[in-house]
Amino acid sequence: MLDVSELLRPEPAFATKPVVQFRDYTVDPNDRIKERVRKLYHEMHTKMTVDFVKERRASWLKFDKFKATMMDAIRKMSEFLDESDPDVDVPNIMHGFQTAEGIRKEHPDKGWFQLAGLIHDVGKILHLYGEPQWSTTGDTFPVGCDWAPSVVYRETSFQDNPDAKHPVYSTKYGMYKPRCGLENVTMSWGHDEYMYQVLRHNKTTLPDEALYMIRFHSFYPWHSGGDYMHLCNDKDLKMLPWVLEFNKYDLYTKTDDDLPDVEALTPYYQKLIDQYIPGVLEW
Ligand SMILES: O[C@H]1[C@H](O)[C@@H](O)[C@H](O)[C@@H](O)[C@H]1O
Ligand SMILES: [Fe+2]
Ligand SMILES: [Fe+2]
């Protein structure tokens, strides 16, 4: 018999555990990691307003905070543990290399894709320079319009967000026009948008597909939830398959057990950095 679920989203052979065990956001007060995750999103969903995002963008998008090469920034991720992630309990540097190596195995010819895998979460360096975890990590969603049903903890964690009472922001389209395109949508502030903007500011030669994956990889309510399609234009729909291809490696290579040998892999990825985003960058 044909199993339709396999047609919809085939389970990748490389997944480090059964796919249903990833992204488990059920609530369990006795589970240390589940409580860590729930509390982080509660704070995010309470405080992530249009005004907050405007203010953070105005500050971070000056790129006057520090200077570092991409490899230095990657190495900094060994000091960072993502508290929003139910599937990872080791420093984030491991996850970057796991993602990149997963991509490299199946797309050996696409250096740009592998590099996108390595750097996609490096925007979390925000936290090492003062940004709280709740506005650095976690899934993203548009601000300035109603929160869609597939946002995690949608029913229980937005009650105290001031935008819930706003006459425009609380409506389906909010401050947006139908099919305005995601590039014209203001996303919740976090590591995706920051990394995308850092790459552009520093004139990366990575292709559009890579930039798009990086910018929207945490937008699960869209790429996996199927929500917010009313804000998408043709470009977004054309890019969606790339975001989903990226997501396979981002999510299913996560494991705390089989950790990559960062030193041994560094020379290979340094070459890709030299090709696509060389030198000292402004952050
Ligand atoms: O907890 C994770 C983590 O913060 C990831 O980096 C982000 O991309 C995911 O969307 C989120 O669920
Ligand atoms: Fe991420
Ligand atoms: Fe990631």
Question: How would you sum up this structure in a few lines?
Answer:
This protein is an all-alpha fold and about 280 residues long.
Account of the 3D structure:
- This protein is mainly α and 283 residues long.
- Helix content is 46%, strand content 2%.
- The chain contains 13 helices and two strands.
- The protein has helices at 4-8, 32-47, 50-60, 70-76, 92-106, 111-119, 125-128, 154-157, 191-201, 208-216, 220-223, 234-252, 262-276; strands at residues 67-69, 280-282.
- A two-stranded antiparallel sheet has the order 1-2.
- Helix 5 runs antiparallel to helix 6, helix 5 (92-106) crosses helix 12 and helix 6 (111-119) crosses helix 13.
- The longest helix has 19 residues, at 234-252.
- The chain is globular, with a radius of gyration of 18 Å.
- The model has no long low-confidence stretch (mean pLDDT 96).
- Bound molecules: 1,2,3,4,5,6-hexahydroxy-cyclohexane and fe (ii) ion (2 copies).
- Residues 95, 99, 120-121, 250 line the site of one fe (ii) ion (FE2).
- 1,2,3,4,5,6-hexahydroxy-cyclohexane is lined by residues 82, 84-85, 121, 137-139, 217-218, 220.
